[in-house]
Write a structure and sequence with these properties.
The chain has 450 residues and is α+β, with helices and mostly antiparallel strands. It has 4 domains: 59 residues, no CATH class; 103 residues; 83 residues, Beta Barrel (Elongation Factor Tu (Ef-tu), domain 3); 72 residues, Beta Barrel (conserved putative lor/sdh protein from methanococcus maripaludis s2 fold), CATH 2.40.420. The strands form 5 sheets. The chain has a 6-stranded antiparallel β-barrel. The chain has a 4-stranded antiparallel beta sheet with strand order 2-15-20-19, with no helix packed on it. β12 and β13 form a beta hairpin. α3 runs antiparallel to α4.
Length: 450
Amino acid sequence: MPDPHTSPPETVEERLRRENWELRRQLEELQGLGHGGPPRKLWRPSSVTIWGIFLAATVGIAIAFFAGYIPLEKRRAVVLTEAKEEQEALPRVEVMKVGRSTRQSGLRLPGNIQPITEAPVLARADGYIAKRLVDIGDRVKAGQTLAEIDAPELTDQVAQAKATVRQAEAALQQATANVQQGKTDMELARVMARRSAQLVAKGAVSKQDDDQSQAQYNSKLAALEALERAIDVQRANILAAQSNLGRLEKMQSYLVVQAPFDGVITLRNVDVGALVNSGSTMLYRIAQMGTLRTYVNVPQAYADSIKPGQPAVLTVSNLPGREFDGQVARSADALDPASRTLLVEVHVPNTANLLLPGMYAEVELRSIRADPPLLVPSDALIVRADGAQVAVVGVDRIVHLKKIEAGRDYGDRVEVINGLREGDTIVSNPGDAVREGAKVDIVPAAATGN
């Protein structure tokens, strides 16, 4: 029977706890030595403690090895297996069938909108602006007064020209009267000459007197002809004076500046009191905008497809979604040797006045093609030094690189003029794995509209 005063056997946990307490106590004694306290005996761990710590560390390392390294090796093996399968598998590519473009063709070109008619309004008379009746943005009608010019000198010149006409008319009347007098003198001289001839035959007068009578008659006859010519001169003077008067009166009418046609004032260059000179001072600029025109430069490759009356659609960036129908009015019928382009004029009605001269626009020239070309995505092209190529996949899934002749470029699509046939299977977006003679695994590409 055990002694009740004897303590039970010490467990490992209790022993470790006691040793821990001893270590703490010895540490406190060591700290006490720094304060002059008596030295104390240090505790040394037993061999059981050391082996316990070693076994615990060994167990921890084993657990960490089995928990991390083995799963890592398994994952590595799986990755290597998948990589090997992927290397041995055929490259997968997206393919599509080659089709034709739509019959309706559209060529988009940039252009600048201009008025169908535009003209500067210049002064035709010298003077000062007395009245300015319109300003920029005003819509005017043909013949409407735009401004009035004050020119007192021109008024005086008109009065002088009228007086000159009256003077010429009076001179004509005087010349007419002189002709009448000349006719009377000539008739008297003729009668006296005839009478003198009769008397000479009878011997009543001398031959000398008869000669004087005949000479006097001839003189009066010549004077009459001169007077009649003077009438012609005076009539010409009247016409000249009247013409000068008409010119001055026409210039006087230019003192009232009028609109040459219906339109909008786009520029005003003068104000009241400004001095203007005939033929050199621009007063206004007027534009007719009921119909606008746009000039576009068509490349040489498409110049033969442009015809007068061909439909055209105009769009501007500040009116998104709006299209303005027009048509080709005319072309230059000759290419610019510098740019190799054809100048084309497109007319667009502007009844709503939404379009303004000077706007940047895009013009789409539309036409119907009898034989639409083949169309492929731009990503399907393989561009190399010897030209563009396309990867064609045969029925045996072998890739063959074919050279093509590209036509019109739409950005994301390209027309093919030569090198492909309708229905050929091509790689829609070839990568590095697509090469001549390579065998591939094909999948249909996503459908895209023409």
